[in-house]
Amino acid sequence: MTVDLSVHPPRSTALIVGSARETISYGQLDAAVSGAARAHTDHGFRRGDVIALTAANTAEFVVDLLGAIRAGLIVAPMDPALPQSGTRQRLDLLGSLRHGGPGGLTDDDAMVMFTSGTTGIPKMVPWTRQAITASTASVARTYGLTEADSTVAAMPLFHGHGLIATLLTSLTVGGTVLLPAAGRFSAHTFRDDLAAARATWYTAVPTVHRIALTTRETRPGDTTRAAAALRFVRSCSAPLAPETAAGLESEFGVPVLPAYGMTEATHHVSGCTLGDTTDVRRRSVGTPAAATARIVDGEVWVTGAAIARGYLGDRALSSGTFVEGWLRTGDLGAIDASGNLSVTGRIKNIINRGGEKISPERVEQILAGCPGVAQAAVFPLPDPVYGERVGAAVVATPGIRPTTGELIAGCRGRLAKYEVPEHIAIVDALPLTAKGDIDRAALAHSSSNSQLSLSPTGAAVT
User: Fold this and answer.
1) Whole-number mean pLDDT of the chain?
2) Are both 85 and 197 inside the same structural domain?
3) What total of structural domains would you count in the chain?
4) Is residue 340 a part of any domain in this protein?
5) Residue 335: strand, helix, or coil
6) Is residue 342 one of the residues assigned to a domain?
7) CA 84/CA 92 separation, integer angstroms
8) What keywords are assigned to this protein (predicted)?
9) pLDDT digits (tens, 9 = 90+) for 214-232
10) What does residue 185 show for φ and ψ, rounded to 5 degrees?
11) Looking at the domain assignment, is residue 74 inside a domain?
């Protein structure tokens, strides 16, 4: 079992569902999960079979997921917004899986998680029952979560962030999860959701945090009600700008705790705690909790009970990413004398301008600190001489539209000359991936097709 619902008081609230705020107790959820397990078996599924479940943030998905795992099936959560071709591709990949042998399934596997691949073919990561247990335990331990805690499912449950940190950890400790009425995050109801759940914490990607800040409710007292029980806010899956962290802390009056995780590590690797200072929270993602970390040639490597054994069906890719029990994360980072891990960017995101290596995350952080900037994304532009130049897209704060000159002035003195964006576009919104990360590849593609109106900044250097 990944979650034993029967150990919690049967009348305690497990889920709060939809606009009606219907409550489902642990006793009711346990009975429904047992019924779902029997239904899967009655439909001919057998232990070790792989099934795909479309994963909106609904009670039906939670019951089906836990029921399938209780029946010994292996569950692959799927994004309901995928086009038919994407769904078909993933189903074909799942259908190709076999038990045993290198790159195959094992008896301990509980889930198969999809994560993006550089070739366009999704990678399949096996999550074992042991790894899920290790990861949820580390989330609970990092934040001191107990049955007294409640949260709102702001992240989709077809990704590890929402599945491990929000849902499974909460159900493991006997806490409460509110599932939004829309089956997903809604900025317009978010504060009401926090208030209805008497949420003590929530976790999200930086994009969701920024949306929550910029789409504030207008009714007096909304934030006060929403934050009444909050102890902390967690941020994970992408770098959090200091300005966003400060805005959240001002808005909700609680500390923001950055965390670090990835699908190949069954989500949680490290996280700042309530005992960490503001300085530690602003410059790091805390000390590893579910893993041991080291830095190899600037890259973060991690190992531990929650680390996947490799990618299913792809021995070649696995051999380059999983090395003697260590996961090469592909992230650039450092570990300080106190053991705090800082992540400075993605190796594959690095822009190579004539041999100068530029971290887009660093440039984005500087741009995000400029007056009038709500969001910023930095991406490579092809160049016949330098190979790549620095491009940027900026979403302006409502009512304020910074000029290109103002943005460049905000960068100079804080960035090296070669790091300053040479072309900038002011856009209404940034393209996002399914899990809420900035889609830099889409921006680069739009710029190459002249779909993005980029203005020269005059910042070019030779």
Assistant:
1) 92
2) yes
3) 2
4) no
5) strand
6) no
7) 12
8) Ligase
9) 876 555 567 888 889 999 9
10) -60, 135
11) yes
